[in-house]
Design a protein that fits this description.
About 0% of the residues lie in helices and about 55% in strands. With about 120 residues, it is an all-beta fold. The protein is globular, with a radius of gyration of 13 Å.
């Protein structure tokens, strides 16, 4: 059982930056693809950024060039650096872990609120 704990959310003005962290425990971190999803009020949860176990990254079009996902396998942590934040980035951000062989084996964090004021 993998436990994921997010941190780093908060309130920031448009144009500002935040860095989210997701600390994993209870499993072998390196065998999980990791992702940051977000859910705005009244909207479906969507993928913002993902990083494979090998370090390949993928971004939603809406965050490309502004967000950077990275992972530190030694620290069992995945990060999301968010720059030039916009009010439309306001959402609860969730960390996700997906086993590289068993896609049904997925885990979620509790979420962290990011609010961007205009």
């Amino acid at each position: 059982q993998v436990q994921l704990v997010e941190s780093g959310g908060g309130l920031v003005q448009a144009g500002g930056s935040l860095r989210l962290s997701c600390a994993a425990s209870g499993g072998t971190f390196s065998i999980y693809h990791m992702g940051w999803y977000r859910q705005a009020p009244g909207k479906q949860r969507e993928l913002a950024a993902a990083i494979t176990s090998g370090g390949s990254t993928n971004y939603a079009d809406s965050v490309k060039g502004r967000f950077t996902i990275s992972r530190d396998n030694a620290e069992n942590t995945v990060y999301l650096q968010m720059n030039n934040l916009k009010p439309e980035d306001t959402a609860v951000y969730y960390c996700n872990a997906e086993h590289i062989m068993l896609k049904s084996r997925q885990y979620w964090g509790q979420g962290t609120q990011v609010t961007v004021s205009s």
